Amino acid sequence: MTSSHDGISRRSVLKGASAAAAAATFGFPAIVRAQSATSIKLGIPTILSGRVAQLGISSTNAVKMAVDEFNAAGGLDGRMIELLIRDTKAKPEEAARVVRDFINSEGVDVVFNCEASSASFAVQEVVREAGTFCTHCCSETSSLSADPAIHSENSFRFARQGIHDAVASATYAAEMGKKKGIKKWMAVSPDYAYGRDSVEQFFNVLQQVDPEAEIVGYGWPKLFEPDYTQIITQVLQKQPDAVYSALWGGDLVSFIDQGALYGLFSGIEFFGINLADYTTMSAVRELPEGLHSGTRYIAAFPDTEANHAFDAAYHERWGDHPTNWAWQSAAGIDFLIAAIKETGSTDSGALAEAMRGMKRPSPFGADGTLTMRAEDQTVVNYALGWGTTVPKEPFLIDIASTDWSTVYEFETAWKKSQGYI
Amino acid sequence: MDLAALGDCLGTSSCLIFQTVGGLKIGLLMFLVASGLTLIFGVLGVINFAHGSFYMLGAYLAWQTMALTDNFYLAVLAAALGVGLFGVLFERGFMSRVYRGDVLVQILLCYAFILILDDLVIIVWGEEFLSSLGIPDAFHRPPLFVGGAIVPVFHLFIIGFSTLVAVALWLFMTRTKWGKITRAAEQNPLMVSALGINTSLLFAGIFALGSLLAGLGGALAASERSISSGMGFSVVLESFIVTVIGGMGSIGGAFVAALLIGMTRSFGAIGFPLFTDGLMFVLMCLVLVLRPQGLMGRSGG
Amino acid sequence: MKHETFLKDVAIGIGVVLLLALLFQVITDPGIHDLIIKTCIFGLFALSLNLLVGYLGLVAFGHATGFATGAYVFGLLMQTGTWTIPAAMGVAVVAAAALAAVIGAFCIRAREIYFAFLTLAFQMILYSAIISFVSLTGGDQGLMGGYPKPPFLGIDLSRPFDYYLFVCGVTVICVILLRQVIQSPFGYALRMIRDNHERSYFLGIQVKLYQWIAFVIASALAAVSGVMMSLFVTGAFPNFAYWSMSAEPLFMILLGGMQTFLGPLLGAFILQLLNDLVTEHTRYYGLVLGLVILFFILGLRRGLLDVVWDKVSDRRRKAGTVRPASPVTGDAEARERS
Amino acid sequence: MLKLENVHKAFGGVIAVDHVTLDFAPGSLSAIIGPNGAGKTTLFNLISGRIKPDGGRVVLDGEDIAGVHATEIVRRGIGRAFQVASIFPTLTVSEALTGAVLSHRRRTLTLAGRFHRSGLDERVSEIMTLTGLEAQADTLSANLSHGDQKLLDIALAIALEPKLLLLDEPTAGMGPDERWLMIERVQALWRTGGMTLIFIEHDMDIVFKIAQTIRVLKYGAVLAEGPPAAIRENPEVIEAYLGAPAEETAS
After folding, report:
1. Which of A66, A243, B301, D89 has the most CB atoms lying inside 10 A of its own CB?
2. Chains D and C in direct contact, meaning 3 or more beta-carbon pairs closer than 8 angstroms
């Protein structure tokens, strides 16, 4: 609605501040074009059309902010970052084609992947074969980095993970359960891999931390289901004490709106892992009181100056708030630029070497830092927590942050159970 | 599959009421949209594959009117009329040119409009989904408790209103001159033009009415569903299933089929929670194989 | 005499493959290679559908059933790590043909729009099955994690040139086979059924049987394109079975032309090109594609190759050297008139 | 060779063919006449398997073919042409006839080999000569004149070398001169082909001139049958049918 669309074109982005910088360096803007011959090329496959376009756009927005800053500061000894952004329409085979095109025809240095899960796996296959350096910034499916069978030396994930979220959710839920006497649980989750994994991992951890938790039923609406009546009536009949849900976006809004008609939330504690998201929160008509949500991206968490500054800068430039994909992409580009600066090169082996184990200050870190874990090349120690929603800014209050040592403990156990380690 | 749960549900009054009212609401909303599709097919012999996009347009128009006037009823009215008008333009400007073309051309023309409208709403209203309209103030009251089940007052309104529309459609088709002409046109279009009736006008009128019903359905559904580009596709598939099961062109059939599908979804969610969608397609295949003219369609279709 | 034309097709086919091989060496831009590969894959997909749409007058809206079955069966077999590529390919095609034999038996009972949507309904059932059968198919995430591509007959499909030539070669073989089907007595019977199925009955042609056979053949060829697509992405994804995958070859037929044998192939090329160019410049691909379709439907009123063919045959007709319709193409105008 | 025994057909209460019993001798040329709606075309549809009779037997050379599928009946030797020429618009005359000949020789299920006129040429030319379509061999069927389309329809049936040929109003929609030309061809075909021929005709002059026997239908029942002379004298026929010849023959 608010973002500019200029970034879509093939070789755009060297503009604004970067163009000014280039002009300052070389005297006239025309040189920008010639300069791009030696630029650092980032190929971004992402979703820019259809129902989840907003996510892809917010990802590229976050990247553009960091890249403009990098270029304005003179790039890497004058080498500017050039962004090639392509819409893959959420199709895995289109993502594979685009990434091949990036690598083979455009000669990109880095594939900066802003795709959802299944397309991310398709991208992973291509970069694994080609050996290109790749960052996955949006897929939350744990196996993308955890499964050694699809591991690539040059691929790094900068996104939250299902299993991490599950630990955060379950520990919070168990605590709330003790406080409010929750015994009977039900799940309402979209019927696709993410929704199913989320529920499975949540209940798995929950029953470990709270052995009394009992699961009384599941509701599996399909993804993009418009009408939740049949699910809501089921919940009302099963009469659980609490509902866990991995619904997101418009689906979650519809569920809450429709559930409110039945007075669903007056007797049932609702735990929606994806609720505290700016788009979602501002779209719910009348937010029932006291719903629980995980933190996706919210300026209030972590409640630090750096995080508020990120939100403010993003809002100023794009007229919108960041999404979960936006912070992940911001983290990814920040680490990437740091690695480029550190190695002074764009060689994938060198970048990978620098990336493994890298720890950087970040607005999104649990303690102000993020770490790229070397063993499975995925980001950890990001801000993770749960709180209670309120209808206005800051949208989420009483946030309890998750202890990462607990996360690691359960994650290791989970990996063992999956046969990954 | 959980047949025991389904059996339990059928045996308890609260569950029965819960699922029946839910099924009625879903089914009747579906009927509003599907009746438009079947009406257009009955008279014009074309499947308006873009019907779901008309439904989407209705939702967006209602949202826009709501944003400007904050009046729910006005929003629904504006959506219905606006989409009706759009339907006329679509019929006169595009669809009428391919009546004599083959099925492929008709399907692709409609598909082109699905693509165009999906992008147009993004250009106009943005790529983010929009929140639902919300329900009118008069219905902001606690739900009713009937036999141990909870029934939202607003659902009763939707059920009542949709039934009224169904009755009005039925009266129109059976009691008015234009309704009779419409039914005659379904039987024998040549005769209607031989009678000196302007078929272009009739076709445009039918398309307007059919589109209006899609817009109406979209607006009403938007009262509690979030609005997004691409929301029309599942709707056109459902409407098509309803149309086929009921009998292409049969309003009464669409009514019965929509309720059948509504109940299938509602009770199927208990018995076959993961296969409610598949169940609809299976139902449609069964009808097409066993009774191709549909439950209430004329034979020989 | 009888084999002369077939041999001629084979000779042309060999020539085309050699030319494409040469092209690979001359134009080194892998983007162009990918364009040719995708044109081959989707071209075969669209050509196989045109056996039903153009030559039989059956608008199938569920053609991706064959495509997806081919891709999934192939991908699943390859993931076991014990199958060779040709064997897995053979099984995938046979599986798709068998499924089509069952689905076809139901679908050909329905006519026109009913047929179109019945095939779509079966496809959506397959889609639902793929989505729900997570343990086997990976659900919405598809067959992930890739699979090995063991070399066979000295062909190593993980090498770009080998894969390129494999796709080109397989496509050309299938196109020659398809042309043989169309030019055979059976192919003419299909045309007779399209023109007038009632009369065909009274010439002793078992219309439904012929439709069913054509349906199975078309699906088997669609499965071949599905297999090649699976090799392209080293996996298989549920959107292969989604309804929009069936709409694509219909576009290609519309864009390229259904009356001319190679029209759909040209259509596939146009659509790939359109996709590549448009997505680079705007994210309103749907809008652009929609407008293009409108232009073809309401402006040109037929596919590009049909237009070219009509122009050529018009000129030759005026010169009096050619009969009004080629047996290969039929005649669009005559069909409109009928 | 063809016997109808008590054949009955009703469409939703309306009786179209009412317990008809008829016998057609081998090699005979007979006409079926009757006012519009007398059930003539329905009778043809019953014989050729387009519809199934509700009751009765249709016996072809001693075998009951009632309810047998149309394509199978074609195989057993019954060919037919239609009231409105039923042809293949996008095929040329020779292509269409080649298709029909191939079908007759049961070679249309062949996927191998090409659809070739060579080898079949002789038979196809023969049929075209018989029907006088030689000059139109390469004309698209859709572009033929009305009369030639009717001829082609008949030629398609001839290609099946039928024992029994059913012609539904071969002269429908033609001018007076054209009619006689057509009927002469039909008569010639019958003479040379040695087949049994039954035709429906409204033009009484034609019927009385060429038919050996005439069957008169009314309201689906047989009103009269016999040689032309007898029919001409039959008072019932005169009253019921010939009584108002002007309107009927005009239709």
Report:
1. A243
2. yes
Contacts of C164 (CB under 8 A, 6+ apart): C20, C24, C33, C36, C37
- Regarding chains D and A, contact by 3 or more CB pairs under 8 A is answered as no
Q: Residue B272 falls within a domain, yes or no? A: yes
According to CATH, what is the number of the domain D2-250?
A: 3.40.50.300
Rounded Cα gap, residues C274 and A252, in angstroms: 36
Give the C-alpha separation, C8 to C15, whole Å: 10
**Interchain contact, B235 vs A49, CB within 8 Å:** no
C129 interfacial to chain B (CB closer than 8 Å): yes
Residue B45's closest CA among B226, B202, B214?
Answer: B202
Residue in B23, B52, B24 with CA at minimum distance from that of residue B37: B52
pLDDT digits (tens, 9 = 90+) for C186-201: 998 999 999 998 899 9
Facing residue for A149 by CB, picked from C145, C232, C239 = C145
Three-point CA angle C306, C118, C179, nearest 5°: 35
Q: How far apart are the first and last CA of chain D?
A: 32
Residue A16 reports pLDDT greater than 60: no
> Which residues form the domain of B70?
3-290
Query: What's at A199, amino acid-wise?
Result: V
Q: Which residues of A touch C232 (CB under 8 A)?
A: 93, 96-97
Whether B297 is covered by a domain: the verdict is no
Report the C-alpha gap between A181 and A222 in whole angstroms.
31
Measured distance CA(A74)–CA(A23) in Å, rounded: 11
Q: What percent of chain B has pLDDT over 90?
A: 47
Q: How far apart are CA C214 and CA C57, in angstroms?
A: 11
Burial of C17 (0-12, 13-18, 19+ CB in 10 A): middle
Angle between helices A348-355 and A324-343 (to 10 degrees): 110
- Is B84 domain-assigned? yes
Q: What is the pLDDT along chain D (251 residues), one digit of tens a residue?
A: 898 888 888 887 788 888 888 888 888 899 998 887 788 888 899 999 888 888 888 988 888 888 888 889 988 889 999 988 899 998 888 889 988 988 888 888 878 777 765 567 788 888 888 888 888 888 888 888 888 898 899 999 988 888 999 999 888 888 888 888 888 888 888 888 788 999 998 888 888 888 899 998 888 888 888 888 888 888 887 777 655 544 444 43
Task: Look at the domain A6-161+303-380 and name its fold.
Answer: Rossmann fold (3.40.50)
Other CB atoms within a 10 A radius of the CB of residue B136 amount to 15
CB D204 within 8 A of CB D242: yes
What is the CATH T-level fold of the domain A163-301+384-418, as seen in this structure?
A: Rossmann fold (3.40.50)
pLDDT tops 60 at residue C307:
yes
User: Could you read off the pLDDT of B79-97 as tens digits, one per residue?
Assistant: 999 999 999 999 999 998 8
Instruction: Please tell me the distance from the alpha carbon of residue C17 to that of residue C20, in angstroms, as a whole number.
Output: 5
How many domains does one find in chain B? 1
Chain C interface, mutation test: which of B116, B124, B241, B291, most C Cβ atoms within 10 Å?
Answer: B116
**CA-CA-CA-CA torsion for C231, C148, A87, A272, nearest 10 degrees?**
120
Interface partners of B (3+ CB pairs, < 8 Å)?
A, C
CATH of the domain at B97: 1.10.3470
**Percentage of chain C exceeding pLDDT 70:** 91
Note if the pTM is more than 0.90: no
Residue B109 tokens read as: 């023309």
- ipTM value for the complex: 0.82
pLDDT attached to residue A373: 95
Please enumerate in sequence order all residues whose Cβ is within 8 A of that of A251, keeping only pairs 6 or more positions apart, or say none.
A190, A221, A223, A224, A225, B226
Longest dimension (CA), chain C: 65
